[in-house]
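Readers of this paper often ask what the protein records in our data store actually look like. Such a record has a labelled line for the sequence and another for the backbone structure tokens. Nothing more is needed to write down the fold, since each code stands for a local backbone conformation. The record that follows is passed on verbatim for readers who wish to inspect the format.
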Amino acid sequence: MAAVAAAAAAFTTLRISKPTVFPRRRFCTLVTSSLSSEFNITFAPPKPKPITQLPVTPGADSDPPGSFISELGEQLYIPWIVRDENGNLALQTTPPEHYLRAMAETKTQKKKKKVGGGDVKSGDQVKQSSVPPKYSKAARRFYNERFREPPQRLAKVLAAAGVASRRSSEELIFQGKVTVNGSVCNTPQTRVDPGQDVIYVNGSRLAKKLPPKVYLALNKPKGYICSTGEKETKSVISLFDDYMNSWNKRNPGLPKPRLFTVGRLDVATTGLIIVTNDGEFAQKISHPSSNLSKEYITTIDGEVHKKHLLAISEGTVIDGVQCTPDVVEQLPQQPDIKRPRLRIVVHEGRNHEVRELVKNAGLQIHALKRVRIGGFRLPDLTLGNHMELTAANLRALGWKS
């Protein structure tokens, strides 16, 4: 015990001092003196001081040594060592111009990201995601509001789809043979959209797409009637059998239209008649309120005198309405046609109007041919042939839709 106490007393007599710990600084300057082996250490301040503008000495060719440090306040920056125009090394605080230009022009490599199990460049991914859809919601809304046909009456849709005529379609609806979205519909005025509503007729579903609008001009021959009845053997519509048989080849995927005539020509009258599947167009053209002029060439049996022309021009009463022609004139005699011919233009559109006018004047008609409706004149077509109407032809007929 005595030995232990002596050792403890000897240890306490030793002078122990803690080593001096200097704070860690990132930047420092080392200044050595040739006269002493001691180091003079100064540390940079934590924050840079505002840059002060050094006074420029007139006539000085270069900056004094250490001026780049004084410009920065006492903050020390690692300078750039560059060569000047003379090839001498110099210090500056900013990177050289050629280095900055090279960094700006350098293209970095795009990173690759795995999308769906494959490597896709991030640039390509952004490009794909930034591509807008083919039709935006606003574009679809604009189309639906201005160009898409609104819901139509059920009977009209059935007629346009070629099921039957308007009246026959109404009879099918009244008989309960038409269902809309699984429910029997007995009202022809019900508004439907074939593209969205599910319509069945006699157990067969109606096509979602309605047939396109068709407009045809026919040179009607004699002996054909303008009726779409199934019992009629010599109907004007039968002249379009070849056209309908080749429909699927010319229009794949589209249902066949149901054609009907715009107005009527009696069985003995020849010439221009319009055939279509557009009910609105047919109503516009054939209704007397349209005031479309129609030109006829009438071949007369017997002689024609001035009194006959005056009697025709005075008009006659048809179905309780006074009908007066617009133009009545006798055409010049032709060598190959012995009978006299009259050119008569009317606009009322009454049934058998021209025949009644000629009959009222005491004349007998040998042949009657319609050659013009509105601004559209019968083209050079042989009897029984037809042509498709262009937009210009429809405008000539007064159709602006």
About this structure: The two ends are 125 Å apart (CA to CA). Confidence is low (pLDDT under 50) at residues 11-37, 59-75, 124-130.
